[in-house]
Task: structure prediction
Amino acid sequence: MRALILNQSAGLGSAERVALRDDYPMPNPRRGESLVRVRLAGICGTDLEMTRGYMGFNGIPGHEFVGEVVSTTTSALAGRRVVGEINAACGDCDFCRANMGRHCPKRSVLGILGRDGAFAEYLCLPDRNLIPVPDAVADEAAVFTEPLAAAFEIFEQTTIEPGEQVAILGDGRLGAIVALAMKARGLSPIVGGHHEDKMKRLAGAGIAAQPEDRLRTGFDVVVDCTGSAKGLARALELVRPRGKLILKTTVAGSAGVNLAPIVINEIQVLGSRCGRFRPALDALRSGAIDPRPLISGIYPLEEGLPALARASEKSKFKILLKAS
Amino acid sequence: MRALILNQSAGLGSAERVALRDDYPMPNPRRGESLVRVRLAGICGTDLEMTRGYMGFNGIPGHEFVGEVVSTTTSALAGRRVVGEINAACGDCDFCRANMGRHCPKRSVLGILGRDGAFAEYLCLPDRNLIPVPDAVADEAAVFTEPLAAAFEIFEQTTIEPGEQVAILGDGRLGAIVALAMKARGLSPIVGGHHEDKMKRLAGAGIAAQPEDRLRTGFDVVVDCTGSAKGLARALELVRPRGKLILKTTVAGSAGVNLAPIVINEIQVLGSRCGRFRPALDALRSGAIDPRPLISGIYPLEEGLPALARASEKSKFKILLKAS
Result:
């Protein structure tokens, strides 16, 4: 089948690490897994980070997708249009038994860890990871289920009261999606950005945005979606004492950020990663969230390499790959 | 009066920054403040940090004390033995009105920020900061009220269930006091240390301790009392996914600690600083906590400089200064 392949062997440059192949072997569903034909896949910041060495993953990247089940032993899934939770847990360890499969130490993660991903014509996932997509949700919206679920994860971890002042740092893909989730929950976040064109576009999607350096300190909640140590430092400036700082993006090094304000101001820092798909799908079905204005382009899979390059451009929001 | 004076003028070495003076002017209580004769004062890691430049404070350091009120307009305080909350808040701002005076942006802090402290014969504090000490609590125990209050602050910020596995990193003064507070709340923390003699001494105070490198990962709660970036990195290794990491000590630089595990493992990081005195005094009065085994020495104020040097030694717990 056709697929984008990431090869992190030593000595390869960033551009050489990803290749398009037409002869990659079809994935082979294990017991309890279904074979899914990918319809659309989304390119995420994590995918781009991986082309720069993050996670040391070799194989097919991609973890945001909507597809259709073409082979399964679970009749309820046969032929269905589905999205899929990306963490394939063992189901049997302490974490899994505590309903924390997304932290199962034996898990594989679609397109990130030990499992080929969605930048391909086909993928496999355990049946229990697959969730049928309601007819009312178009492919172009359903493909946002995974990042939206990650945004809704915030509300599984903490409570944000109506009226609390929320700032979101980062005017990129994730910042925008977190803003949409917050708005769907009745909050009025403001995105602090660096790119005039992006902030204009956010405004078009109904999201308030202004240059990050104009934000005034004292926010009850600051969500860091910048993926940079600078963002973390700025978030620590903006959050009020006893406020919450939610980290949605990983910072591999902390680059000497002064963390003393966390203690002095008694900040609660919450790391937040993947979430349940159900609340995200519900919000897409009800129309509470329509992420489609965030699509910057749809490329066929065979143009995957230029698509990845586009997704790296500062001015671009979500780039999708159409596999078939 | 006699006092230790910290002078952070540029060009002075660490040893030159602190001096003993016998002719320092007596403090002058402002409206609503009392004059307190210091009986005992404790040397804390923050005091030692300040002699190395932290906070840029000039004046009399020291914020842990027990004393007696010698001049006041509040009759209930006259002649009483007292301890004192160290944050002197404005009483009028949004934080003060929200009962968060310890975060008042206009506050002074005894011996740390804009207010002379306790390494002296006398100090001043607002009457509302002073709390009479029950007769049953000896000076040598009462002087621990401030650090104990900081330890109890953890329970104002979060809930730790009985049976949860708690590790405390750092076998120093603060780690020991946090361990005592945890035990008083029915928890069974284990201190991870680096100093055999200190760990032995902790065992003598009924606190379980073992070498930090022998701790196994998977703790529900890890409290970092090391005051070092290494401690933070180690705490991130030891805490389980979705666990809590409580920062009790400030790390001025993060020295390149990889913070990605906070997001990947969805850790809740809680900065925790000062606390209410009442729960601490209650625990001292009831005998639930007796911190006196942690005293490594009591020095007269005129030996304040050698006392500070002793407090800096790795093998020492709490060093007290007896002002009069």
Observations:
- The two ends of chain B are 11 Å apart (CA to CA).
- Chain B touches chain A at residues 95, 100, 103, 153, 157, 232, 241-242, 247-273 (CB under 8 Å).
